[in-house]
Amino acid sequence: MARSEHHPDGLIHYNPQLAYRGYTLFSAGGDKALLIDMEGRVVQRWQSKRGITNPVLLPNGNLIALASPSEEAKGQRGLNGQAAACFELDWDSNEVWAFEDPWIHHDYERLPNGNTLLVKWAPLPKGLVRRIKGGYNDPEDDPKHMLGDMVLEVTAEGEIARTWKSWEHFDPATEIIGPLGHRLEWSHCNSISVTPKGDWLLSFRRLSMICEVRASTGKIKWKWADGTTASQHDAKYSGPDTITIFDHGVHRKGVEYSRAIEIDAKSKEILWEYADDPPFAFYTIMGGSADVLPNGNLLICETSKGQFFEVTRRKQVVWEYINPFYVYNPRLGGRMNMVFRCHRYGPNY
Predict the structure, then answer these.
(1) CA–CA distance, 183 with 334 (Å, rounded to integer)
(2) Spatial distance between the Cα atoms of 67 and 140, rounded to a whole number of angstroms
(3) How far apart are CA 98 and CA 95, in angstroms?
(4) pTM for the complete prediction?
(5) What is the pLDDT of residues 285-307, one digit of tens each?
(6) What torsion do the CA atoms of 52, 60, 297, 55 make, to the nearest 10 degrees?
(7) What are the φ and ψ backbone dihedral angles of 280, each rounded to 5 degrees?
(8) 201 forms bridges with which residues in the sheet?
(9) Tell me: the pLDDT tens digits for 201-230?
(10) 206 vs 73, 78, 181, 182, 231, CA distance in Å?
(11) 110-123 pLDDT, tens digit each
(12) Staple partner for 287: which of 120, 279, 303, 345, CB 3.0–4.6 Å?
């Protein structure tokens, strides 16, 4: 699909009989988050000089999001998703809470007790780096230096209540970087969510693996990598016994394509999936999300094209929208309307 100035954007399609009515939230233009109605009209706008990525509405009506990268971490090869801070805005875009750290990245989760889970990069122990298998060494990289993923639990006062280090629970013999991945980092956690039992579900892109961590002890309950998912994002429980995953398919064996899948939380069997026909017509090199809506439909975000759409369980597209806000990205090059994730909220949320 050619993307020219003549290509349509904004609302593309809406089927009122089959779509779940509500308001869709997404970040646009680098420094703002927008809430649109089913007709694509902007009904609420938040703005921050920090930049806004991956915004979520909290039950109190405030917006929580990640900031743009800091100058300290910005531009390092291969490290997409950095954020200088996680912060909260009220309805009028006043900042009411923030936690700053130049090495947090990708995702967060606000807990019922008011604390916030954050994902962070940290240097791996040097003795461990040489034991990690896979990937390739780039001339720009120090082969003795590699980053790993941590989870921080931060209080409302900004204090670090606990930390979890992924490398203390991973096995270098089995958690292997793919052959097309660099060795600047090991696992690349791109999503964290809380399970129905209060544990953590984590997605690790570079290992094409998701795992569940017992929150009380930090021990890994299970790991899953079936060999068909590749560089997945946005793993979360969609119900007591099901998990949705955006499988974006980078470095997939054979033809690369993206899909949204729902798996059984116990057996890990794939129960449902959405892919395009032909499959490569639906594809994003990064990001992506899939939310199960109250009516059973899924809201899917195709990051690279700034496109999000709602599909029924019969895979009929009943709502489609393309982000009309473009910005120039000097790092990736070109004029882009990328959207990391989007979310739909009902009128009574």
Answers:
(1) 26
(2) 27
(3) 7
(4) 0.95
(5) 899 999 999 999 999 999 999 99
(6) 10
(7) -70, -5
(8) 193, 212
(9) 999 999 999 999 999 999 999 999 999 999
(10) 19, 11, 7, 9, 6
(11) 999 999 999 999 99
(12) 303
Triad 108, 197, 259: Cα angle to 5°: 60
Q: What is the pLDDT of residue 73?
A: 67
Q: What is the pLDDT of residue 2?
A: 44
Supply the pLDDT for residue 291.
Answer: 98
- The residue assigned the tokens 């890990």 is 268
Q: How far apart are CA 151 and CA 212, in angstroms?
A: 13
- Contact assessment for residue 47 and residue 32, using Cβ atoms and an 8 Å cutoff: yes
Token digits of residue 331: 């790092």
Q: How many CB atoms lie within 10 A of CB 50?
A: 21
What is the layout of strands, in order, in the sheet containing 209-213? Answer: 189-194, 200-204, 209-213, 220-224
Rounded to the nearest 5°, which phi and psi values hold at 304? -60, -35
Nearest Cα residue to 116 out of 161, 77, 79: 161
Task: Write the DSSP string, 149-183.
Answer: EEEEEE-TTS-EEEEEEGGGT--TTTS-EEEEEES
| Assigned token pair, 26 | 């997404």
146 in Cβ contact with 186 (< 8 Å): yes
What is the Cα–Cα distance from 256 to 329, expressed in whole angstroms? 24
Separation CA 319–CA 314 (nearest Å): 14
**DSSP bridge partners of 290:** 300
